[in-house]
Design a protein that fits this description.
The chain is mostly beta strands. The protein has 1 helix and 9 strands. It has one domain: SH3 type barrels. Strands 2-1-6-7-8-9 form a 6-stranded antiparallel beta sheet. The longest helix is centred in the first third of the chain and has 14 residues.
C-alpha cells in the first residue's frame, strides 16, 4: 500500500488554524486541465480562492481533491482542485501560512512542503497578499518587497 502524502493533512491543519483564529483561509492554486474553477478568474495560470466557512458551501478537503461550491459574481459554481495543484494556504489578514512545491514531474508526491516552509508558520510574500481594497490587518506588518519571481517567497517569523 502506498503511503499517503503529508500535504493534505497539513492543508487541513492550516485551514483549521486559520478558522480557529478568526482568519480567512485562502488557497493559492496552479490551474491546469484537472482544476475546475471559473476560467474568468484565473490570472497567469493561477487562482486564489477564499475557502472560509462563510464563503463556501459543502467544503470537503480530501487526500486527493478539495471540493466545494461558492458564488462568483453572484453565480453558484462547483469548484474542484487537486491537492497536488495547491501551492499555498495562508491567512488573508496576516499572510501566515505555508507554501508547497507544485511541479508536474512528481505529481505522486502530493507536493512536498518547501524547505523554507518547514517552520511552524511563515509569511507568504506580497504576490499572494490580499488586494489593497481589503481591510488592513489588526497588527500592521512592515512592507514587503515584491520578489518578481511569480511564485510566493517566504520570510521566517522568529
Amino acid at each position: 500500500m502506498r503511503e499517503i502524502a503529508t500535504k493534505p493533512y497539513l492543508l487541513r491543519a492550516l485551514f483549521e488554524w486559520c478558522v480557529d483564529n478568526g482568519y480567512t483561509p485562502h488557497l493559492a492554486v496552479k490551474v491546469d486541465s484537472r482544476t475546475q474553477v471559473p476560467a474568468e478568474y484565473v490570472k497567469n495560470g493561477e487562482i486564489t480562492l477564499n475557502i472560509s466557512p462563510n464563503a463556501v458551501h459543502k467544503l470537503q478537503m480530501g487526500n486527493e481533491l478539495i471540493e466545494f461550491s461558492a458564488r462568483f459574481g453572484g453565480v453558484a459554481r462547483q469548484i474542484s482542485v487537486p491537492i497536488s495543484n495547491v501551492y499555498a494556504l495562508y491567512a488573508r489578514e496576516t499572510g501566515h501560512g505555508m507554501t508547497f512545491d507544485v511541479d508536474g514531474k512528481d505529481a505522486g508526491s502530493g507536493g512536498k512542503p518547501s524547505v523554507q516552509s518547514r517552520a511552524e508558520m511563515e509569511t507568504v510574500a506580497s504576490n499572494v497578499r490580499p488586494p489593497a481594497a481589503l481591510p488592513a490587518p489588526a497588527t500592521p506588518e512592515p512592507p514587503k518587497k515584491p520578489s518578481g519571481g511569480g511564485k510566493p517567497t517566504l520570510r521566517r517569523i522568529k
